[in-house]
Structures are given as structure tokens and as C-alpha cells.
Amino acid sequence: MRMMYKIFLIGLLGIFLFESCYDDKGNYSYHAINEITVKHDFFGDTVLRMYSFVDTLRVFPEISTTVNNDPDNYEYEWVAVGGDPTIGGQYTLGKEKDLVYPITLPSQRYSVYFKIQDKSTGLTTISSLSLQLSTLFSQGWLVLGEGDDGRAQLDMVSTGGEDTTLLKNILQEVDIQEWGKPTCVFVPPYRPAAALNYIHVGTDKGTYRLSTSTLLPIEGAHLKWSFYDVSAAGECVMTEAVQIMGYYRAALVDGNLYYTELGGQQTCFFGSPSNHYKGDYDLFPVGDKIGYSVKERGYATVLYNKRDGRFVYQQSGYGTPIGYCADMPDRVGDPFFWKPGYEYVTTLNCHKGSGSTYTILKDGSDFYLYSYRISYSFGIIKQLMVKMDNVIDLDKAEFFGASNMLSVIYYTVGNKLYGYDFARKKCELLKTFDGYEITSFLSDILVQTSRDYFYIALYDPSKPASTGGTIMKYEVVDDVDHIIIKEEKGSEWKNLCKVKSMAFKSR
Predict the structure, then answer these.
(1) Which of 140, 251, 383, 430 lies 20 to 30 A from 226 at CA?
(2) Which domain holds residue 356?
(3) What is the pLDDT of residues 456-472, one digit of tens each?
(4) Is the separation of the CB atoms in 210 and 216 below 8 Å?
């Protein structure tokens, strides 16, 4: 009986299924998919190269649809996403089909996405293009000097475009009440963590930090906000800053030495001054320049203790001392001793050899050049000490520089430029700039280091300070008998401020 019941049910189910199939009249609704196709030459592998604050991004895509041609059925959006992790950012450029966008984005590489949404289905089609942005102030020489009121003025010799462009008084619209006389401009030569990647403009009323992308003051622009203890910050007058690749930075602020390691994302990097000995917090005065390696990761910086007349060093966390200075040891047979007791003149860094640092000292009317190398593997290596015989008016020198390839020191006296070959102990007058004052000198140790260039800044006193400055670029010619320099063609820049300091800004 149970078997017959099961058979009956199965048969009934079969009839139901048959009837269902039989009654199917084909009443199905099939809807074609609305395919959206976007065409434009910019979409794909092409990289657009444009300039912020100069160019306008114009993209008029061709759009075809297979079903719905009603333009009101679609929503559009253009979005740019930055690819540089130190800048980043996502920006909406427009919400119309055709994009006309006067570019104001920070300079970096972007992926620009064009989104089309079918409102009837909710489906979105995305196309993309690549955009590499620069600005006229993306690359070039930042020039800090005096304006007509004696306060700091920041100009730029821009090399970011097809032609060299002079940008005048970049910060004239910036309301900084305590903007004082210029001291130095510092541009990080390597890119550390974003929090530390700022341009520093030093004045005698304080130092201010600028965005590398916009050249505008950041939030909390004053350098005091870089101190862990803001209440301990002084005037924050920066006069010197150096950076050892992307690892280590040292600066002279208010005459004291500060340092930081550049790893991580810390927003503050100034603790306590380091120009003291371990266990002794009596700060000693140091020379106005920092000795460091421009050629390798030598983690030490060298300064001159003017109070005690001796060389000292400060090292990063990869060695000692940390947070203070120490005397360097002397050994019998060394070419010189680290504790001469002489008066400090200046310190210079260059690429000669494996990277050399020179410190010039004075004893009465005699001058001495100390040469040493700061090595990552071998520490601080003494090279030689030379008595600088046959120099001309070195006691009156204002600005100094060093050759990257030759045993030559440059110095200026009034409107005259001298070269001193310390190997041959020969001094030569290289150039007299009649009608000008020399206001600054820079040996190129960071930009075109494979050749021997230097820059000299001049000022015409018959013109206003804001426009009377000139920078000239020279190359040193290797000659057996003489120190020969030649002017670099196309590298004379006029109409600048009265130059105090200059630094190169790369992309």
C-alpha cells in the first residue's frame, strides 16, 4: 500500500511538471544591457605633463551608449588621486561630462578617474588617465635676500618649465608680522617623512616653514612648533642646516646645535641643544658652519668649540655621543691634533676625494687649513693640516667656498674673488666685479656634483635692494699652473633681491 502511494505521488508530480512545461507560453522579459563606451586619446598609457597654476586640463570624451541616449540619465565625476605618499590627496575636479579644470593641485603624479553612472541601473563605468604635474616653482633656485624695506624677500629662478623664469617676491602676500632680515634658506636635498619635508626660511626674527608643493607657510609655520617643548624655544633664528641623505639633519638655531634622525613620521625634531659635553650642560659657542659628509652616510657632524679651541663631534643613534658633543681622540703620529686652541674662521664641505671637510683656523696673523673626512665605515679621518702661506687679505674675507675637484679654496674680499691652492700654496685674484658688492657665495655640493661649479651673488648699489641682485654661475677649469674659472653661458640671472642665501629645490 505504501509503495502504491509513493507511485501515485510520483505520477502526480510528473503530471504537474508536464503541465507546467506545456503551459509555458514564453512570457519572459529580456532587457539589453546598456553598454557605455568612452573614447579619448588621453585615456590609456599616455602621461600628460602639465603645470599647476599655469595650464588648464581640458578633456572632452566621446561617449556612446547602446540603449539609453538620454543625457539626463547619466551622472559624471572627475577625481584626481595623488600617487606620492608624502603629498597624497584626493580631489574632485568636476561633475560634468566635459572637463575644463584650471589646475591648482600640488605637483606630483596623479591618476585621474572619469566616472559615468547610469542612473536607471546604478551601474558605473570608469576610465582613467595619468597626469604628471609640476609648477613653475617645482624646480629651481630659491633665493633669499633683502627687499627694499630690509626685510626678507624670497625670489626664485625657476628651471621647472621649458625656459628659465624669474619669480619675484613669492611671499609678498603672506602676512607674517615678524618677518625680519634674511639669514638662510634650507631645502631638504632628500625627501624624508612628510612631516619633516619643509622648506625653512630663516630671518633674524624667527624661522618659518613652507610647503614644498605650494611654497606657502604651513599651519604652525613658525619653527618654535618643531620643538618638543615650545616654551623652551628661543627666537628660532636658523643660520645653518645640513642633511645627511634622508637619515639625519643638523641645524644651528639661535647659535646652538640641534639634530634629528629623519625616520618615522614625527612632527617635532628639536629637543635640547647638543653643544655641550656629557654631564655638563654649560653650552659652549660653536662655529657658524657644520662639517658633514656630502658623499656618503657619515652619521657624525663636526663643529668647532670656540670656547675651548677644539674640534668636537655629534653622532646619531648609530653611534655615540647622542644628544651631546665629545672631543675626538688624538694619536701619536697624526698629521694634526684636534685641540689646537686657535681662533675659528669657517668650515667648508666638498666632494674632493671621497668627500672632504675643511676648517680654517687663525693664530694671530697665521691661518691654518685642517682637512678631514667623515666616513660611514671608518669614522672621522684626519687628512692633512696646511699653513696657508702667501694668502692675500684673508683676514678681510667675507665669504668662502671649496672646489669639488681641486685643492682650491675660494674667498671674497670686497668685490674681489680669490682662489688659494693649498697644495701649491699659491693665491690668485680670479675676478674683480667692478661696480658691484659680493653678497653671497655658494659652492655647488648638492646639485651638479660631477663638475666643479660655484655661484656668486652680486649687488648693484645704484639699484633698489629688491631688484639690484645678480647671480652668476662659474665652472672651475683644471689647469696645472693656474686657477682658471669660466662663466657658464646662459646662467646669469638679474633683477633679483639683494641675495643672502640660495638653495636648489628639486621636483
Answers:
(1) 140
(2) 136-431+500-505
(3) 999 999 999 999 999 99
(4) yes
